[in-house]
Structure to design on (521 residues):
């Protein structure tokens, strides 16, 4: 059992929501990562610059005290004074000597600064001293590290202050600036929480909006599907609505409308063909049946009567057989008009001039019986005037043209056959001296089951079943001769046309020639 695939509407909606969700998650991930880096860099910059600011203020205070001649009476007095006056925000500042003895401290969250260094700060000082002793750090380097205090994570900057020249009595100092990361951690947590709720909400909104947008965009397609489902053989003239002729759905509707027009034409042509064929076949069948019923109605009949009845039956059977053969031939030629559909349509090199002479010889006796002269003009073609196709079908094409000309050629007239090469084509022309065909009826003579034209002032194309001429050498009297001839010409890549002449009817068939060596060069 084949899996059931969701509709295009659901797939478009899901795809839109999925793409937006992925984009939002990628954007959120990059944003959170960038925000964390910025926050960490800002915290490191704050503690580093604060440590340097404190160190600079202490050195300035020492120089000012020395200029005033003051002597520090209490250990750390100048450093504590600097911490009281210096604005360093919410940072904790610890100042110790080389022996890590606390000299001054500033902790804004406490009313009284602690008199003991936090263990984490003391551990940091020991680590930095070991690195300086090993030569990995210089005296002026500000070391920034992450610490974990009792109150939470923090960022610390450690700077060693060396006495200036002339201050040998002053001790070297270690300045530690601490900044709590609790606020930054809370900020990042709030951002993550907001994103965690925002992405599903945005995805839900995108899902609903995408569904509504996709349904609105596909509404013309639903209309096309509904309207197409309601079109049957009874209403092939109905057409699909074209909302916007310039978008994809509009072009689809136009293409379907064009397809419906072609299908409708083909259906009407096929229906007319079936009706005409049924009408044409009904006449000989009715005659055969009528003769049989009349013959069998009496208990005794003479041999002459039986012979007359069987003669009628035989004649109509022959006519019926020819009609059926012509219908099969039309079917074969129609299929052969499209390469690859009919393998029986041969593609051999055919000597058309020789084929024309053979066809003329075939109808010579018929022409003599009708007192019509057949004239084949001298060939002006090279010996290589050949086309690629089926010799039997091409022979039938020429026979049909000759038969049509003989049917309408008056007694003591001439039928002309000409052959010429024109721009890579072989053109065979058959002209008679009959009354001709009116311009308004020249295309209808090629339709199937359209019988001969009653030529003259009141000329008109007779419908099927109103044949005005007898069956000829190649035709059946069913109005299929010219239709078969044109179908054969088209199947060979050529064309059959009725030329505009002052008198008579002139049919010209043009077939593509096989290029000769001179043409290819």
């Amino acid at each position: 059992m084949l899996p059931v695939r969701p509709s295009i509407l659901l797939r478009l909606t899901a795809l839109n929501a999925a793409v937006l969700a992925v984009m939002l998650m990628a954007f959120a991930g990059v944003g959170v990562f960038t925000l964390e880096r910025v926050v960490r860099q800002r915290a490191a910059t704050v503690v580093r610059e604060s440590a340097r600011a404190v160190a600079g203020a202490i050195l300035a205070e020492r120089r000012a005290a020395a200029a005033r001649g003051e002597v520090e009476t209490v250990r750390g007095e100048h450093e504590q004074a600097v911490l009281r006056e210096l604005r360093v925000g919410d940072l904790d500042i610890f100042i110790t000597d080389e022996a890590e003895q606390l000299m001054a401290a500033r902790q804004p969250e406490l009313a009284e600064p602690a008199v003991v260094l936090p263990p984490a700060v003391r551990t940091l000082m020991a680590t930095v001293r070991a690195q300086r002793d090993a030569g990995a750090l210089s005296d002026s380097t500000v070391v920034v590290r992450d610490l974990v205090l009792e109150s939470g994570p923090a960022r610390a900057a450690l700077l060693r202050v060396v006495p200036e020249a002339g201050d040998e009595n002053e001790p070297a100092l270690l300045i530690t600036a601490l900044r709590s990361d609790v606020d930054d951690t809370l900020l990042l947590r709030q951002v993550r929480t907001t994103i965690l709720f925002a992405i599903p909400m945005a995805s839900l909104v995108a899902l609903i909006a995408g569904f509504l947008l996709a349904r609105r965009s596909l509404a013309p397609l639903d209309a096309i599907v509904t309207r197409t489902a309601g079109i049957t053989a009874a209403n092939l003239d109905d057409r699909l609505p074209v909302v916007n002729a310039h978008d994809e759905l509009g072009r689809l509707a136009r293409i379907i409308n064009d397809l419906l027009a072609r299908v409708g034409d083909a259906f009407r042509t096929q229906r007319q063909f079936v009706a005409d064929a049924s009408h044409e076949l009904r006449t000989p069948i009715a005659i055969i049946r009528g003769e049989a019923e009349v013959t069998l109605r009496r208990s005794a009949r003479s041999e002459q009567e039986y012979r007359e009845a069987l003669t009628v039956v035989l004649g109509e059977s022959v006519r019926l057989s020819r009609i059926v053969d012509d219908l099969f031939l039309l079917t074969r030629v129609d299929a052969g008009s499209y390469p690859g559909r009919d393998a029986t349509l041969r593609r051999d090199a055919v000597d058309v001039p020789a084929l024309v002479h053979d066809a003329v010889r075939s109808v010579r006796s018929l022409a003599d019986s009708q007192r019509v002269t057949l004239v084949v003009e001298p060939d002006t073609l090279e010996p290589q005037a050949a086309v690629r196709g089926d010799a039997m079908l091409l022979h039938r094409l020429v026979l049909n043209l000759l038969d049509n000309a003989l049917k309408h050629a008056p007694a003591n007239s001439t039928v002309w056959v000409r052959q010429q090469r024109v721009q890579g084509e072989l053109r065979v022309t058959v002209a008679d001296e009959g009354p001709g065909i009116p311009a308004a009826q020249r295309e209808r003579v090629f339709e199937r089951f359209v019988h001969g034209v009653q030529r003259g002032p009141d000329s008109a194309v007779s419908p099927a079943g109103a044949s005005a001429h007898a069956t000829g050498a190649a035709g059946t009297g069913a109005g299929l001769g010219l239709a078969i001839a044109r179908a054969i010409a088209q199947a060979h890549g050529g064309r059959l046309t009725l030329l505009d002449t002052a008198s008579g009817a002139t049919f010209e068939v043009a077939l593509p020639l096989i290029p000769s060596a001179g043409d290819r060069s």
